[in-house]
Structures are given as C-alpha cells and as structure tokens.
Amino acid sequence: MCTGKCARCIGLVLLPLSIICIIANVLLIFPSAEKEWTDHITLQVWLMGGLVGGGLMVLCPACSAVRAGGKGCCGAGCCGNRCRMLRSVFSSLFGTLGALYCLTVSSTALANGPLCDVGGGDWQQPFLNTNHSYLTNQTLWAICQNPPNIVVWNVSLFSILLIASVIELVFCGLQVVNGCIGVFCGDCRKKSRRDDDDL
C-alpha cells in the first residue's frame, strides 16, 4: 500500500476514535446521565483523559494523516507529498502522547472505581485500596446507592476510553513509521491519482 493511501486510512480510523473519546468523557461528567450528580465525580473524570488526550490530541494527527494522503505543497513533482508526511509524523507523535494520557487516566479510573453514595449521604470511593477487584465481583456494585447504576456507567465508559486509546496508540505509532517512510521514500501513487485524492 502506498504511504499516502495508508496515511489516509489511518487518519480515517483515528478520526471517529477521537470523537468517541470526546463523547465518552462528556458523558462521564454527567453520572447516570443526570445533571444533579455532576458535583460528585472522580478526579479521573476531571483530568479529561478522553476529551483532551484521546480526543483533541488525537484529532490533530487524524486530520493531518488524512491530509497527508492528498497532494503535497509542491504538487506532483518536487517534494510531492513529503511535506505533509513530515507534518503527520510530528502530529502523530503528539497524538501518541495524548493516547498514552487517556490510557493512563482510564486504567487508573477503572482500578479506583467511581465516587458514590454508600448510604446516608456518605460519598466515597468504596473500591479504592481494596484487596480484590470489584470488576470481577459484580455483587459488590450494590454498595453504591447513588447515582443509580454508577458502577456500570463508569466501567462502561472508561472501558470504551481504554480500548479506544489503545487502538489510537497503535495507529499513531503506525503513522509515525508510515510518515517516515513517506518522507524518505516519497509517495508511490501515480501523478494522475494524486489529483483525484487531493483534499
């Protein structure tokens, strides 16, 4: 596969993943999809791993990779697509940092568990610093009385962020390699195809 086509495919994979991360993080701000619980969310939600890391920081390399599949600043001749490929390499390194940030925040959030009312208005993280994982023992989830179904809400959304960030990490890494190949070796597409692919 040509480096330009590969870059575009990678960008088209990263683009929806970054949007998914943004949506998942926004939903985490509203526990159980209700506004009344927004003042009882964990530090990991406020760190905005999905919104900033897996979202905005990956959105930039996604767009850059898609554009790298188009015609370069010097047209079909001269440097061809190498300028955009070089830019996509640096953008993808930036996206890798964002994906790592999202991965770290999400994994920590899953390990610590949600903030919830365990009864009588006592808000705490009941699964924090326990000897066993609450993720494999769903009977423990009943400890959290409010917000309703908060454990399922947090586990589902942070799992989405975790999986998405791992995929983003892989594809950003692939684009770094692909972009470097594109910079040094150029684009193998024919001139007639470059005009068709130009954004």
TrEMBL record:
It comes from the Eukaryota. It holds the Pfam family L6_membrane. It is a multi-pass membrane protein. It is found in: Membrane. Keywords: Membrane, Transmembrane, Transmembrane helix. GO terms for cellular component: membrane. The chain crosses the membrane at residues 12-33, 45-68, 89-111, 157-184. InterPro entries: L6_membrane. Belongs to the L6 tetraspanin family. This is Transmembrane 4 L6 family member 5. It comes from Chiloscyllium punctatum.
